[in-house]
Amino acid sequence: MEKFELNILGCGSALPTTRHFASSQIVNLRDKLYMIDCGEGAQLQFRKSKLKFSRLNSIFISHLHGDHCFGLLGLISTFNLLGRTAELHIYSPHGLEKLLAPMLDYFCRQMTYKVLFHEFDTKESCLIYEDRSLTVTTIPLHHRVPCCGFLFAEKQSLNHIVRDMVDFYKVPVYELNRIKNGSDYMTPDGEIIPNSRLTVPAPLPRRYAYCSDTIYSPEIVEQIKEVDLLFHEATFANAELARAKETFHSTAMQAAEIARAAKVKKLVIGHFSARYENEDVLLSEAKAVFLNTQLANETLCISV
Questions:
Q1: What's residue 265's pLDDT?
Q2: Residues 17 and 107 both lie in one domain
C-alpha cells in the first residue's frame, strides 16, 4: 500500500509553552508533502521530523489566528535562502495575501520563486485542490473568525495486474493500461479473458479529516463519515465546558462524540490549552466516549 502518513509538527494552542509548538501538520502522500497550518516553529519541527522541504508545494491554512499562521513568513524566507525555484501554493480564508504582502515586500524582496495565494469561502464546503492522487475539500467550522477544516481524500487507484495470469495469456504490454482500467482481454483466437482473472482490485482509498479550532459542531459529521483518521481539536477538559463555549473551542469529550457519531476509524486530539501540564485528563475523557483515541504530540507520525 502506498504511503499515506500524518506528521504532527505542533499541537499546542495560542499560548506558547515549553511542551508544545503551535499548530502545524504535514500530510505525506506517496512522498509528496502537504502542510496544514503553519504556527511558529513549524520549519524547525519540519527538520526534526526529517522531512524534505523540496517536496512541499502546498500549504493549507485553516484560519487567520496567529498560532496557525505566524510561521509562514519565516518558512517562505527560508525557502528563498535555499534558492527554491518551484512555486509555493497557499490556500487560506480571505485576507491572508493582504496581510503577508507588505512583509514579503520588505523581507523577501528578491524572491527566487513565486508564492501563489488561493483564497476560499469558509461558509460552504468546496474542492480547493486536486492532483493525480488526492483531493482536498474544505470542512466549514464555527470559530471566532472564518475557519475551515480540510478533508484529504486519496483517489481510487487502478486495478493491480496479476503478473502470472498476464504472462500465461501472453497479454501484450500495450493492453495493460486498458486492463488496469477494467477492460477484459481478447486473445488472438477470440477468447474473452475476464478482467477479474487478470487483475485484483486496488485497496480502498483512504481519507484524513482535519478539524481545526471549532465549537462543538455536529453538522460536520456527515462530511467526515467513516474517515480513516480524524484530527479534532480538544482544547479543554469537560470541567472547562463554559470556557470552551465562550472561546468557540471544543472539549476532548465533544471531539470524541463527533468521532463516534461519524463512525471514524481513529481519532487524534490536539490543540491543547497551556493550562494542562499533561493531557491525560483529556485522553481519559475522550476514550470514555471513543476508545480508539490518541493524543497528538510533536514529531508523532501516524499511518492513515
A1: 98
A2: yes
Say how far apart CA 65 and CA 213 lie, in whole Å. 10
**Residue 258, C-beta contacts closer than 8 angstroms, at least 6 positions apart:** 211, 216, 217, 218, 220, 221, 224, 230, 232, 250
Which residue among the candidates 31, 37, 67, 184 is catalytic per the annotation? 67
User: Virtual CA dihedral for 82, 132, 180, 158, nearest 10 degrees?
Assistant: 100
Q: Into how many domains does the chain fold?
A: 2
Same domain, yes or no, for 26 and 112? yes
User: Are 183 and 193 within 8 A, CB to CB?
Assistant: no
* Backbone CA torsion sign across 107, 120, 26, 234: positive
Q: Write the DSSP string, 218-254.
A: GGGTTTTTT-SEEEEE--B-GGGHHHHHHHT--BHHH
Alpha helices in the chain (DSSP H): 42-48, 66-69, 72-81, 96-107, 163-168, 176-180, 195-198, 241-247, 252-262, 280-287
Task: Please classify residue 1 by burial: count the beta carbons closer than 10 Å to its beta carbon, then call 0-12 exposed, 13-18 middle and 19+ buried.
Answer: exposed
Query: Are 55 and 180 contained in the same domain?
Result: no
* 213 annotated active-site: no
Same domain membership, residue 247 and residue 281: yes
Region of residue 52 (phi > 0: left; psi between -120 and 50: alpha; otherwise: beta): beta
Give tens-digit pLDDT for 204-247. Answer: 999 999 999 999 999 999 999 999 999 999 999 999 999 999 99
